[in-house]
Specification:
By secondary structure, the protein is mostly helical. The chain has helices at residues 2-30, 34-43, 52-55, 59-68, 78-86, 90-112, 121-130, 134-140. α1 packs antiparallel against α6 (90-112). It starts with a helix and ends in a 7-residue tail after the last helix.
């Protein structure tokens, strides 16, 4: 019964990944003004020479345009990372990188099903840092007061 349960898990895991991707685009869209959009569109003109880009009026439309030209997918974000970088938008770039490392890294690990713990490393280290060893506790203790 274990294999069946795992197969069921995989099916349900595909959906959140797509939802995560959509919410990433949503978040990016909220931070892209009409002026930004013009800049982003001109940044990818050379790569996607198309009359269509003139008609793009919203960032959602721009994402769809990139997807259509195979420049964007939920596990292919290097192109928009490049565009945000050359457009000097570290804020947008950070969102994408965060998504890529958190969402994609986790899904890759799950696919490979490595025997690594599922705890994200930052969390793992935080717990270690929080608990000083006995020696450190002694060092941190104030010196005994002289009677």
């Amino acid at each position: 019964g274990r294999a069946a349960a795992e197969a069921g898990q995989l099916v349900t895991r595909v959906l959140p990944a797509m939802a995560e991707y959509r919410s990433l685009l949503e978040e990016l869209a909220q931070n892209i003004t009409a002026e930004d959009l013009e800049q982003l569109k001109s940044a990818c003109k050379e790569d996607i020479p198309s009359e269509e880009s003139e008609a793009i009026a919203t960032s959602h439309h721009w994402f769809a345009f990139l997807e259509k030209h195979s420049k964007l997918d939920r596990d292919n974000l290097s192109y928009i990372e490049h565009i945000f970088e050359i457009s000097r938008r570290p804020d947008l770039l950070t969102m994408v990188v965060q998504y890529r490392t958190q969402v994609l890294k986790i899904s890759e690990e799950d696919e490979v099903d490595t025997k690594l713990t599922r705890i994200p490393s930052a969390k793992k280290y935080k717990d270690i840092i929080r608990q000083p060893s006995e020696e450190e506790i002694i060092k941190l203790a104030p010196p005994p007061k002289k009677a």
